[in-house]
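COMPLEX REQUEST
Ligand: copper (II) ion
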Amino acid sequence: MQSGRRSFLRGLASVAGVATAQGAQARHVDETPQKEAARAASPARPIPPGQLGPDVIPVVTPDVPDMPWRLEDGVKVFDVRVEHVRTEFLPGRIVDAWGINGSVPGPTVQVNEGDHVRFVVENRLPEPFSMHWHGLEVPNNMDGMPGISQDPIPVGGTFVYEFTVHQNGTFFYHSHMAMQEMMGLIGLFIIHPRGAYAPRVDRDFGIVMQEWAILPNNTIPNSLAMEFNWLTFNGKAGPAMTPMLCKLGERVRIRLVNLGMDHHPIHLHGHQFYVTGTEGGRIRTTAVEPANTVLVGVAQARDVEFVANNPGDWHFHCHLPHHMMNQMASMVGPLMMSHANAPRPGSMTAGMGIIEGRALGDAASPALGRTINLGAEPERAVSNMPLTRNPQVTFMQPGRTTPPNEGMVPGYPQDMFMVMDDMVAKPETYGMRRGWSGGTMGMMTVVRVLEPEVFDRIQELKAEQAREEAAR
Ligand SMILES: [Cu+2]
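STATUS: Structure written out below.
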């Protein structure tokens, strides 16, 4: 048995060596985690600062920056400002959230297993705060639990967290004040292994999932809400999140983190993946199962890996229907008022709940609908309707404002289709089918499995754009 197992592992090791030497072409196409060797050997020697272990690649967090660090006496030091951040879920959809160093979610921390790290956390919020390192095995007084392991960081105060990371995998950091979490205070904390997991990947992406309840014409999330009308990947609602790009045949890892009120079943089209990691680290090779949907529960992380062997643009999204739309609200604006098939306030002002001089007055509460905000208990039936007339809308026939069978189909209306390709165009959307953005809302984005020429063309466009921005 022993020698058999040794030769099995040796065989895989030599296959892996040849594959690496051959370069990118068709390298991993028929590999599955079942065939992989035991995890790459973990040499105890430290990885030089600024480098990653053999075959390890940095994680790309679309639309979210990495957190910069500097080296002080062998310690990686991060400056962390916890503050109000004005951000944009979609072009024009401004949100006043709380974030870190100007970003919601916070910037992605990337370190190596074995690193000694220091986080100098400055509380710029108008209330106490403390930072928790979710899943990290740190000394008790570094755990960021207000009261039980430290005093909260006072307004304007600073606290220094310092520890050595001896784990590897997908972790995250977040406020341990519960309501502050719902204002956006979370970020990815990636700890790279000393050597790449086997089989190694060609692309490694990170996604933070968040949900928000924001009243129409408002910019401040309601952290008390139990239902949500804005769902974001990396602080962007579909179709604004930058698509994840790979070349046909590459092996791709996507790391998913959820810290909100709902669980999210995340689904990939056109491929099967393996769930290879949790918030506790790498899953044993023998335990992985094929899937195309992974439930990422609150406070959990899941890593999925797949071979991108099916060319095309593929949806990657939460499959909860209410998480696949934007600005879900019942009665907003004159259009709503004219279509609602139930008693209605009659005007936009009234519809916003401003009947008795305040937005949350009891008299207006039903109009708020769906418990998006306080006081919506006496809810009544209302319809889904488009929020705006968009010139790019392609759902109806040109020249018509109402469908010919309106009123003949029970249940109408249900869905809307708002195309905003031009609003969210960027190099990464080059070559996508016209109208793609109409079906991409809420917690939805796209994995683009590209022919090498298209992939390379997009890199050129990105470089061009970067040069133009630098020249400005
Ligand atoms: Cu969801």
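REMARKS: The chain is about 15% helix and 30% strand. Confidence is low (pLDDT under 50) at residues 1-43, 330-359, 363-397.
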